[in-house]
Amino acid sequence: MSTAGAGIWQPYEDDPVLTPAMTEGHQATPADEIGRLRRYLEAVVDDRRGGPVHTAVAFNAAYFGYEPGGEGYGNGAFDIDTFPTLTLGDETPALPVGALVRIETGSDPLYAEIVYKEGRHLRVSHDADVPAWVSGAPADAEGPGMRQGSSSPVRRELLVPDLTVFGPALQLPEAKLKRFRARQKWLDKDGHVVVDARYTSVSEAELDDTVAFVHHLLTRQRESLLSPLVPVSIVQLAGGSEEEWLREALTGLLDTVRYALRTSEALRSWGHYALARTRIASGLRHDGALGEADLYALTGSVERAATPASRRRHGLQGSRTAYTAIGPWLRDLAGAGPLLTGVEYAVSVCRANLAVADFVRGDTDNGLRVGSGVRITLDDDFENGGIWRSRHPGADEADGSDPLVPAGRGWRDTLSPCATPATEIPECAADVEEAPVAPLADQALTDETIGLQNYLRITDSELCWQTPLRLAHLMEDYLPLTPMVCDTLRLLGTEALPVRLELGHPGGTLDISDEVQEVTLDLTGETGVLRGIQWPIDFFPGLRIYVQWPRGGTVFRLSTAELEDPVEVDGQLISHHYDPQVLTRDGAPGGSRDGDSSDGLDTRRLVLRAVRRLGRLTPDGHALLDRAALPRGVYAMTPAAHQITALERAVGELLDERHLYAATGSRGADGQPHHPAREGEAPIPLIGYAPDPMVLPRPGAGGHGPMQATGVEHFVHGFLRRLPAGWTPTDAQRAAYREHCRRVGKADGWELPHGYTFVTAHSRRR
Asked: Is the pLDDT of residue 575 over 60?
């Protein structure tokens, strides 16, 4: 296939398709750069028989210069002898999708790219109706509720290699490949490699595909990553060779690549895998195996798996739950064998899962099939091609959770068989209106009552709640847990264990090292806490944290939520949902992540501190303090005359500048202040603090946004370009390439490869 004249990037001929802006993620990338990348990736998917192309594979194509039309990576920047080695049935360090590998054959090795993988907890299984414990099982699972107990678990995995990606020069004849499959010594009968993958920890096995791939690039595939022969080096894109810069840049690039795939009108995505819509449509038009009729039968089979066969003579039907694995179901179809070999297996699995997902989206009420009463949900998206759960009666599980988000109920049910029914609670606290300001005596809050946790969702599969960060949490690197979590985890019989923390902070500053952390779950206290949390630098007291905990698991997912419009409170720019009570109390002057002290504060700030920290709080963050209590609140003792003078002057200035306001309340017979003043009670002066958030327009929302990228000058890094036949590079270009190699880490430089020149860095206007 030729891309000439089609506006599609051609490696080593056009400017690199990956740009520095993409290292910040898709939100920071201009639309024209996204469009150029998307057109190229669509051509890659089309060249690879319509897919599926995983996000990691798509990154490889753009970074290493995959050339549609037959050459693939044939002109790429690889020392193929450095690739990890695979042998059918052997134990090997776990490899992610996107890994470039060498499959040993005893004679000519096979060079390939891993384009798909799935779990195989059941080593020999041809039954689509799998045991419940397999669905959602961790890497070290051995049976219902049973785990290996090893710090380096081993999981059997099926890897699908694409043996065509390095072009004709490294591709073995089809007849020889058929002999390999027939002997099942190097490849299995379907042309796949089944291995025992060893992980350094259970948490490593649970990493998102892209996180695992970034780690692989920086370790086992590092030599290829840092080769100066790539179209544009990650060192150039990241702006340096520091490890964290490289990691952050790779993470941003993968985010941009995934966004380009998911927003393509020519592609459909199943998880990280993208397929051409034309390929999906042609499969549905096919009258034979895996055509429309078979996929329709698959959706019916998933539903019928839990439907009672007949009614009982007396009483109600008992409940029934079934788990259907896509891979074994497809293998059981007559005539499907040829469509389940090589890369075609990955295509068929993704098409089948999309068919069931479309059925759930279009023919059910959030997974509940009205006619049959069966609820269908995705329970595991990795094991055996994906496992779907069907339950009758399904109405008792209609908890509002997304039926297409893997829930892992099968495994968890073996840990907690007596799970309680779901309890409906509002899904997101951000959707609940804030309470209006109420009378001080009725609604005032103390330190013991502010910042309480609120449950958002309680189901048999997960527990979600929100809690504001307190100053102590930030200073001491911990987060209290809800008692419901601790009550469950204490059943493990341990007081402390390592757990995985995943942190999301959309629109904020988040280092790559903050995203996935190993922390300690401490169950010694009344509620339990997560200790050793590395809080991001822009987290502040009052920031709302939304916590998700899959029941029975050792993973906690924390995230923040962006405000629709940022606000400014006392000069502090806030872009995320926050608790105004905690912000008032813990954000007072003298409180910081470096300490909590009034030492060195001037009188004005001491007054502000006293009102915010000692005043009684209303739900919207107002603080009201009895004026008579202010002097002792500021000085912690009866002040001297000169201190009273300085205090009154500071109060007057703060009132004039509207940092504080005066109010009138009353004092009851019990000595408690009230606001508004109550009839029959003695009036008293109050001094108050009001946060008064000022809404700010988002950048670009008004007339002062950033200029659009179109028509502006942009920088292009130096890159290799293929020369026409008979042409040779100049001495200046050879020298420029050697200097380029030194900048990206090759100290003694490299010579230009034959047939190429080097285009030095330059600016260009689009």
From this structure: yes
Task: Report d(CA 92, CA 84) in Å as an integer.
Answer: 9
Band of the pLDDT at 1, cuts 50, 70, 90?
very low
CA 482, 483, 485, 486 torsion-angle sign: positive
Q: What is the identity of the amino acid at 766?
A: R
Alpha-carbon torsion angle 609, 615, 616, 622, nearest 10: -60
Contact 562, 544 (CB under 8 A): no
CA distance 713 to 706: 14
Position 747 scores a pLDDT of 53
Q: Which amino acid makes up residue 135?
A: S
Mean pLDDT of the chain: 83
H or E stretch at 233: none
pLDDT digits (tens, 9 = 90+) for 152-177: 899 999 999 999 999 988 888 888 88
In tens, the pLDDT along 604-652 reads 999 999 999 999 888 788 999 999 899 988 887 778 888 888 999 999 9
Which tokens belong to 307? 């439907």
- What would the two tokens of residue 407 be? 């829930």
Strands, DSSP E only, in 129-280?
Answer: 141-143, 146-147, 154-162, 193-198, 267-270, 273-276
Q: pTM of whole model > 0.85?
A: no
| Distance linking the first and last C-alpha atoms of the chain | 27
Which residues pair with residue 378 across a beta bridge?
388
Residue whose C-alpha is closest to residue 159's, from 316, 12, 54: 54
- Cβ-contact 721, 759 below 8 angstroms: yes
Output the 3-class SS for 296-351. HHHHHHHHHCCCCCCCCCCCCCCCEEEEEEHHHHHHCCCCCHHHHCCCHHHHHHHH
CA 116 to chain centre: 19
What type of residue sits at position 436? P
The residues, any chain, with a CB within 8 Å of residue 299's CB and separated by 6 or more, are 355, 356, 359
713: its two tokens: 């000058």
**Cα 725 from Cα 152, distance rounded (Å):** 53
Q: How far apart are CA 246 and CA 242, in angstroms?
A: 6
Q: Pull the structure tokens for residue 472.
A: 């102590």
The answer to whether the CB of 307 falls within 8 A of the CB of 299 is: no
Give the length of the chain. 766
- Give which of 354, 394, 353 is closest to 371, Cα–Cα: 394
Amino acid occupying residue 84? P
- Using alpha carbons only, how large is the chain's radius of gyration in Å? 31
Tokens of 285: 């038009």
The 3-state secondary structure of 549-616, one letter per residue:
EECCCCEEEEECCEEEEEEEECCEEEEECECHHHHHHHCCCCEECCEECCCCCCHHHHHHHHHHHHCE
Q: What angle do CA 173, 175, 180 make, to 5 degrees?
A: 100
Mean of pLDDT values over 418-431: 30
Under 8 Å CB-to-CB from 754, ≥6 apart: which residues? none
Mean pLDDT of the region 422-431: 29
Cβ proximity of 394 and 400 under 8 Å: no
Rounded-to-integer distance, Cα 325 and Cα 379, Å: 10
The H or E element spanning position 363 is helix 344-363
Do strands 91-93 and 193-198 pair parallel, antiparallel, or not at all (unpaired)?
parallel
Burial class, 715, CB count within 10 angstroms (exposed 0-12 / middle 13-18 / buried 19+): exposed
Beta strands, E only, 107-235: 110-119, 141-143, 146-147, 154-162, 193-198
